[in-house]
Amino acid sequence: MINSPLNYSGNKYKALKDILPLLPTDVDHVVEVFSGSALVSLNMNAKNLYLNDISIPLLQLLHYFYENDGEKIIQDMEQIILDYGFTDTYRYGIRSYPEKKHEGLSKFNKDPYQKLKEDYNVAPRVELLFALIIYGFNHYMRFNRNGLFNVPVGKVDFSTSLRNKTIQYADAFKKKNVHFSNLDFRDPKLYQYPGRVFYYFDPPYLITDAPYNAYWSEEDEKDLLSILDDLNARGVFFALSNVVKSNGKENLILIEWAKKYHVHYLNRQYRNANYRRKNITEAIEVLITNY
Ligand SMILES: C[S@@+](CC[C@H](N)C(=O)[O-])C[C@H]1O[C@@H](n2cnc3c(N)ncnc32)[C@H](O)[C@@H]1O
User: Fold this and answer.
1) 62-170 belongs to which homologous superfamily?
2) pLDDT at position 177, please?
3) Does 57 contact ligand 1 (Cβ within 6 A)?
């Protein structure tokens, strides 16, 4: 399974093994309207991907991985490591950087990270953004309301595993023809692709917290569900990822709407039981399909 070095919030890597068997294998064109790191469509057979997202920096990153070989991206990162003086345990070993408990490499990378953040926020370049993700806390990508990158320094550096994910992710893009767009999900252009097209939707979730969920309202949810009904009326196949319950909250709008489609419960332990009777705090993840 292809993973991404971006560790994008809400990415579907852990759920892929449950989602992929539920998706069609004989489609040539896949549209991801809320692409994020696009892990679902990159792991499908389809050759042609239409990746859309509202986030411009995210699309710039995807484009960077599509246009460049993994080796070139690693070279870019090595240059930034040298320029800013970041730790490089891959080259010099962990013993070169004696760590205190719990703080990992953060004390070595704090000042270089601050400088990199300032440089990026003044003149954003995609290479700098990927380096910020590598050296940032949990590899997060977050911007404040003014659009400034605001993640604190992390505890790790550009490890062997992150380098491998970089190569794997860049290679996965090379196997596809990708068309990128930066449209709101309501834009009719997203629903006019000709031919046999499959739609996968992984929108912000109404009842969980990820940075982009804060801006997702009941109005958005209803608009999306009505678009899905339109696709269904046109005979277009879709799959929608979501959660129906999380932290004691239920998404009643979704639960009611989904009655006309097929709801697949991804948490294995709830597949044969009525999850509503159990006292559970973990999110109940579903894939809703119209086929
Ligand atoms: C749950 S994430 C997708 C994660 C993705 N499946 C992955 O594996 O990385 C939801 C995405 O929807 C995007 N988004 C939020 N509001 C949007 C809108 N109005 N139109 C299009 N995309 C939007 C966010 O920027 C975010 O990347």
Assistant:
1) Adenine-specific Methyltransferase, Domain 2 (1.10.1020.10)
2) 98
3) no
Residue nearest to atom 5 of ligand 1 (CA): 36
Q: Confirm or reject: Cβ of 208 under 6 Å from ligand 1.
A: no
Q: Domain 16-55+178-289, what fold?
A: Rossmann fold (3.40.50)
pLDDT of residue 268: 64
Query: What is the pLDDT, as a whole number, of residue 157?
Result: 96
HEC readout, 216-233: CCHHHHHHHHHHHHHHHH
CB of 185 shorter than 6 A to ligand 1: yes
Report the chain (291 residues): mean pLDDT per 10 consecutive residues. 93 95 95 98 97 97 98 98 97 88 90 98 98 96 94 96 97 98 98 92 88 82 98 97 90 96 83 55 90 97
Q: What are 214-218's contacts with CB under 8 Å, separation 24+?
A: 218/253
The answer, yes or no, to whether any atom of ligand 1 lies below 6 A from the CB of 7, is no
Q: What are the residue ranges spanned by the domains of the chain?
A: 16-55+178-289, 62-170
8 Cβ below 6 A of ligand 1: yes
Question: For residue 223, what pLDDT is reported?
Answer: 98
Can you list the positions of beta strands (E) in the chain?
A: 29-32, 48-52, 177-181, 197-201, 238-246, 249-250, 262-265, 284-289
